[in-house]
Amino acid sequence: MVDSLSKKYVIDFERWTGGEMEYTGEAIGFxxxxxxxxxxxxxxxxxxxxxxxxxxxxxxLMDGKAKYVFKDKGRNSEYPLTKGKPLHVPPGVPxxxxxxxDILTVEWWEGPFDAEEYDFPEYMDGVRRRLEAAKKADx
Length: 139
Fold this sequence. Notes:
This protein is 16% helix and 46% strand. The protein is α+β, with helices and mostly antiparallel strands and 139 residues long. The chain has a single domain, classed as Jelly Rolls (Sandwich), CATH 2.60.120. The strands form two sheets. It has a six-stranded antiparallel β-sheet with strand order 1-2-3-10-5-8. The radius of gyration is 17 Å and the shape is globular. The model has no long low-confidence stretch (mean pLDDT 90).
């Protein structure tokens, strides 16, 4: 039985840093059995997502207050998050996560982290202004 044990790491944690990520919050992710998992701290007024992908995503709000916005047939649909309750993002649905307060979320994808950017200008214009202000304040 001992022969089957290994010192090889099963989970290779990846920390996302640099650029806008430093102002957006913090993130740690990893792949396990072909699925992508992440733990995300996101600052109030910032965002996550703003993209679309081919696999289902499940997100759980652990702390704070936030909503997802899905683009469905050209219209925005808002989905407030409830602490501890999973929210499923269907494959092929553009979405953005908008925190009203600092938040902590756990999410996983039914496959690899592979997303295409999808812009929600009605939300991202304000986020970009806040990002620029934060960058200027750091100089």
